Amino acid sequence: MQKTDLTKLIKYGDERPMREIFYDAGGIKAQLICLRAKQVIPPCKMDNDVLFYVIEGKGEITVDNRREKLRAKVSVIVPKEAKSRSISAESNLVILAVQCKSGNKNVKNTMRFPRESGRKARGLEDENAIDVVLKGMLK
């Protein structure tokens, strides 16, 4: 088991967003991302599914030209199939980002994605996605 006090990892950069990787094992990579107001993570492509959980602040995430507002206690799951993702901060923003590395046989069923129809994802009816991912990290 690994316990991490995320409040001790919150650090803001003057010129660019700060990232602190605090877990990277068993197919899971977890990091804290801190952006000052007006900072941006430019569009990029990721090879892994990613769960973003906003700890504090407000901002916006853009995934394949679809924009969603971010605020504390909101999570967004971005599948690896997304062509582009970016994040911008309206106020100081702290985000927990958890990647489920593709092709790792040790990680199974940690993330499942609902269809656009709005139906719930199988396996997440009784648990929220962040709990499922964190359980995988602590095994």
Q: Quick one: how many beta strands?
A: 9
Q: Identify the CATH homologous superfamily.
A: Jelly Rolls
Tell me the major beta sheet. 5 strands, antiparallel
Q: Distance between termini?
A: 7 Å
Shape: globular
Instruction: Give the name of the CATH architecture.
Output: Sandwich
Provide the β-strand percentage band.
35-45%
CATH topology assignment: Jelly Rolls
The chain-level structural class is mainly beta
Q: What is the residue-mean pLDDT, rounded to a whole number?
A: 82
The ordered H/E elements are: EEEEEEEEEH
Features:
single chain, 139 residues, 4-stranded antiparallel beta sheet, Jelly Rolls, mainly beta, disordered C terminus, 9 strands
Explained architecture:
- The structure is a single chain.
- The chain has 139 residues and is mainly beta.
- It has one domain: Sandwich (Jelly Rolls).
- The protein contains 1 helix and 9 strands, in the order βββββββββα.
- The protein has one helix spanning 129-138; strands at 18-25, 28-35, 40-44, 49-56, 58-63, 66-71, 75-78, 85-89, 93-100.
- β5 and β6 form a beta hairpin.
- The chain starts with 17 loop residues before the first strand and ends with a helix.
